Amino acid sequence: MNAVRRTTRSLPGLLFLALALALVALTAPAPRASAVTGVSAVADALRKNPVYVDPAAAAQLSTADADALARQIKDANKPLFVAVLPADYPTKNLFTDLRTATGVTGLYAVRLGDRFDARADSSVLPRTAVQNLVTSVQGESAKTQLTDFTDRALTNMGGKAPASWGGGSTGGSGVSSTALIAVGAAVVVGGAGAYALVRRNRRRHEEEQRAALDRLRVVVDEDITAFGEELDRLDFHPAEPGADDAMRAGYERALNAYEQAKSAMADARRPEDVRAVTQALEDGRFSLAELAARREGRPLPERRPPCFFDPRHGPSVTDATWTPPGGAPREVPVCAADATRLADGHDPAVREVDTDYGRRPYWDAGPAYGPWAGGYFGGGILPGLLLGTALGGWMSAPAYAADYGTGYGDFGAGGYQGGDVSGADFDPGDFGSFGGGDFGGGGDFGGGGGDSGDFGGGF
Questions:
Q1: Are strands 358-361 and 80-85 parallel, antiparallel or unpaired?
Q2: CA atoms of 365 and 372, how far apart (whole Å)
Q3: How much of the chain is in helix, strand and coil states, percent to nearest 5?
Q4: What are phi and psi of 403, to 5 degrees?
């Protein structure tokens, strides 16, 4: 009985304690959303919707604005992913990790506090285009920045939206089962026709790629043969009088490059595969130039790109002004012989190749020559060199990346198109080849050598 009285008298105290605890829970600061929103959660949200706004960054973009942006992306049917994250969200490997976790080929844009950056698979948008888009919206407010970036990106990028964004419930719509059956039958018939069309288009595309590679193979084989002849003319013997370890190492690098080029060409299955071949040849020719300088007692040459007019001329020695027909003047790297020709008012010795319209300079011969030139000149110089030429125009088109990669060092893996589910099968170089996927560099895929984890957000 006493125990009952004690329990009854203690009830007000228990109620007071419960109320106090409830007040503490209500007034205590909520746990930070950024602490629990991992990359996997962000990726899961982006697989369902093109725009994700972290709860801790809700002040950056309203729900209405986020929904409007998502509708615009879905209506355009493009694989553009937008994430708005808090300012202190970890940036190390963010793009690579997000792309891996999402598993969908596309363009990824992230607003992090007041900073902004983006990355893309090369089959969707070339790296130079990403860089230019990011730079064009720096310093804007979140809504303006994301709207402007989306507007501009959707007009340039390739690919289609992932299937995981589509589909709605028919529950409560009042549609009869008979109508649904009829629609389903039409979808089956239409789907079969669409599948046949896709297969036919894919076969035609594969045939075009094989034909382009066959034509390109002739030119690349000429390059390999010319390099082999240079090795023979050098007539270097590792045991010859005056040969030192540096000479022997340079000669070995040249020989390895020759073998690597032959092996890569034998394994080539698509036009973009020849980039590895011409890159090896460019490395080999520079090794030969160093070896020749050492044998002759001359200063070692500066590492420069090959002669623009014909990479078989070897490393360039200077830059000269050149104007393509109908284009603007620009500085191009040239060998000594072509520099003299231009200075004397003569035409340079241009590399011409066979086309359906006769012999033409390689920059007017077809889009397959983008990867060929990309191996020689790399990503930093090629777009400016080809500006105003037919090849430069082809390479700037979104469709070009899907067919050939960008041609200058930014090729996607596995042949996935925008919106395809590739999982982890993608080129991490697209998402930070220098910075490990960190933020930074205004979309320049790696922050331009910035510190690890640096967001950058522009130049």
A1: unpaired
A2: 12
A3: 55, 10, 35
A4: -90, -40
To which H or E segment does residue 165 belong? none
In the numeric block, the tokens 């042949």 are attached to 415
Q: What per-residue confidence (pLDDT) applies to 26?
A: 42
Of the segments 27-36, 118-127, 361-370, which one has the largest average pLDDT value? 361-370
In DSSP notation, 89-141 reads S--TTHHHHHHHHH-B-SEEEEEETTEEEEEE-TTTS-HHHHHHHHHHTTT--
Alpha-carbon distance of 423 to 163, in angstroms, equals: 14
User: 103-140: string of b/e by CB count within 10 Å (b at 16+)?
Assistant: bbbbbbbbbbbebbbbbbbbbbbbbbbbbebbeebeee
- 10 Å Cβ neighbour count for 255? 14
Q: Is the dihedral of CA 449, 454, 455, 459 positive or negative?
A: negative
**Least-confidence region, from 191-205, 269-283, 348-362, 430-444:** 430-444
Angle among Cα 407, 411, 412 to the nearest 5 degrees reads 150
Q: Are 428 and 438 a contacting pair, CB within 8 Å?
A: no
Output the six-digit token pair for 312. Answer: 């078989």
